[in-house]
Amino acid sequence: MLPERSLTTAIVLAAGNGTRMHSAIPKVLHPLAGRPLVEHAVRAAAGLVPEHLIVVIGHGRDAVDAHLRTVAAELGREVRAAVQAQQHGTGHAVCAALGVLPAGLSGTVLVSCGDVPLLDTGTLAGLITEHHRARHAATVLTAVVEDPTGYGRVLRDRSGAVTGIVEHRDATTAQRAIQEINSGVFAFDAGVLRDALGRLDPSTDHRNSQGELYLTDVLGVARARGLPVGAHPCADPWLVAGVNDRVQLAAVGAELNRRLLEHWMRAGVTVVDPTSVWLDVDVQLAPDVVLHPGVQLHAGTVVGPGAMIGPDSTLSSCTVGAGATVVRTHALGAVVADDAQIGPFAYLRPGSRVGERARVGTFVETKNAQLGPGAKVPHLSYVGDATIGEGSNIGAATVFVNYDGVTKHRTTVGAHARTGADNMFVAPVTIGDGAYTAAGSVITEDVPPGALAVARGRQRNVEGWVSQRRPGTPAAHAAKRAQQTDGDQTRQEQT
Ligand code: UD1
Ligand code: CA
Predict the structure, then answer these.
(1) pLDDT recorded at residue 471
(2) CA of residue 4 to ligand 1 center, whole Å
(3) Domain segments of the chain: what residues?
(4) Which residue in 352, 447, 471, 482 has a CA-CA distance of 20 to 30 Å to 279?
(5) Would the CB of 38 count as within 6 Å of ligand 1?
(6) Residue whose CA is closest, atom 2 of ligand 1?
(7) What pLDDT, on a 0 to 100 scale, did the predictor assign at position 494?
């Protein structure tokens, strides 16, 4: 009889160096749907609410540890890092984790891998339940896959009982034909785990081609000691897919995306072309949102009912209100209110807040800019550090000149102002409610409410300049013809 049957500990292995990624970034920090691989694994394990949640870190440990701290803060629970200074294998990694746990640890220990990102809490819970139901000392989560290359294979005797796991590189040709693979995820009795790890010795009976301590060998050791071990097959092989290289990263990423899209489509979102739309995990979409081809919605983006995004738009940490349209737009940290219209070809930078029914049009860039309800910046403008009041219209090709080379300054445009095309607002400057500015103005001084500001050189026409200075040119001929026609018309009108 094994003691206590409750889950006390979850260990996530994330110390390996990820050689096959050929990357300066630790493998477990490579993102998938907006979260590093290890965060997927940590969140799945945290969902089981274990008493201890340990992540074994080693390669690139400072960066991984820093990320774990943010995850712990978001989860509102302790996530402890155990350092495995040198990576001598998955068994060695678990030893590092046990080193930071109480010596008399009892109960059930879950071990999962930081490079198996699609595993969810439900599947882990299923493993634990089966482990307890069958009264096993060790239970491995397995799956039957088309192509088992690279994975450890599950060995069973004639009766079907699990006898151990052999790594791909150590397997015979016959063993390589086995399609049931080790997911790298196990439930162990704490005492059995500690005891079996102590018995592993890569140089003697558990010789393997890498000279490492293999966690997988714990199963064979426990079995050899007459303890009950077993496997819990997972029906969905994607859930246990590991990421060792960038080909697998892309394949698992595409599958996760497909699943996220399916989830949102079933919740009422129209996705016109699911092959060209990419969603992060941390995105919220309301019913009747329409995503056109070429849309990428990154973490922290929330889209309200009936809003239309795309084609060809990328939004990160944005909020888009009900009924808004966002067309061919790149936006980061922007808030777009209900029924606003963005694009085509707009660039919304952090701090952009576009009011209800407001419009940011074609080739317009905004940053730290608020547009009141119904305000419009329709064409070819830069709006930096600005407040634009309700119902105001900014003329085409306007620049909010916010930077004097040292400090950023703010421009305030009141409500229902109409500014002319091709204006420069040299901040700090204020344009009052209901004011107008003339086209081509460089506004350097405040404009009182209701005033018209004209800030440009007066026009002067030098009559006959072309015929005198450019005689014989097509311009001169055209001008002469126009003058004759004008003269003819004048004579006709006079008769
Ligand atoms: C491992 C399993 C294999 C299984 C596969 C599932 C072993 C020996 N092999 O192989 O049976 O089919 O996972 O995906 O367990 N790690 C450490 N410290 C180390 C070595 C690895 O923390 O010293 C971590 C890695 O960061 C990774 C995980 O353990 O998250 C698995 O290591 P990896 O080298 O990817 O093992 P695989 O070859 O995939
Ligand atoms: Ca792996």
Answers:
(1) 97
(2) 28
(3) 7-240, 269-453
(4) 352
(5) no
(6) 184
(7) 78
Find out if CATH 3.30.70.20 is the number for domain 269-453: no
Q: Is the CB of 64 under 6 A from ligand 1?
A: no
Query: Distance from first CA to last CA of the chain, Å, rounded?
Result: 122
CA 402 and chain centroid, separation: 31
Ligand 1 centroid from CA 26, angstroms? 14
- Proximal ligand: closest to the CA of 211: 1
From atom 35 of ligand 1, which residue's Cα is the shortest distance away?
A: 244
Ligand 1 neighbourhood includes 114 CB (under 6 angstroms): yes
For residue 154, the one-letter residue type is: V
According to CATH, the topology of domain 7-240 is: Spore Coat Polysaccharide Biosynthesis Protein SpsA; Chain A (3.90.550)
DSSP labels for 165-227?
Answer: EE-GGG--HHHHT--EEEEEEEEEEHHHHHHHHHH--TTTTT--TT----TTHHHHHHHHTT-
Tokens of 21: 């990624």
Q: Which helix (H) or strand (E) holds 63?
A: helix 61-75
Q: In whole angstroms, what is the distance from residue 290 CA to residue 310 CA? A: 8
pLDDT band at residue 17 under the 50/70/90 scheme? confident
Closest residue by CA, ligand 1 atom 3: 152
Q: What is the DSSP letter of 30?
A: S
